[in-house]
Amino acid sequence: MDIRPARSTDAVAINELLDELGYPQSDPAATAARIQTWCDDPAGAVYVADTDQGVLGVIAVHTCPFFEREGTWARIVALVVSPRARRQGIGSRLVAAGESFATHHGCLRIEVTSSPHRTQAHTFYQSHGYTITPTRFLHPLPT
Hints:
The protein is α+β, with helices and mostly antiparallel strands.
C-alpha cells in the first residue's frame, strides 16, 4: 500500500469513498477539479491509500492560522476507508499522513468532527489520541 497525494485521476474512486460517508457524488469531473484545487493550495492536502485493489481510502487536511494567538492549526476535513478494507491499518496510515502534513506546516493541533452516529469513528479517533470536545454550532449561509 502506498499513501500518496491524490490526483485528479482518482476522482471516481474518491467519489465512491465520499458516498460511503453519505455524500453522494455524481460528477467525477467536478471532483477532479476540487482535487486539483486542493493540490494547488499549499494550506491543504489530500492523500489516498493506493493498493493493488485500487484507491481504498482518502484523507483531506487543511491548515489555518489562529486568530487569537501565534501559530496554526489543522482540520481533517474528510477521512474514509472503503468498508472492504477497514481494520487493516489504512485509516491509521492516512491519519499519520495528515498529521505529518500538519506538523510540517507548523500546526500546534489538529481537529476533526464526526457525526454522533459514527460511534466506530469516534472509537478510532480516541484510539489515536483525539479527545471529545462536544460543542459545535452551524448556520447555513444563503447561496
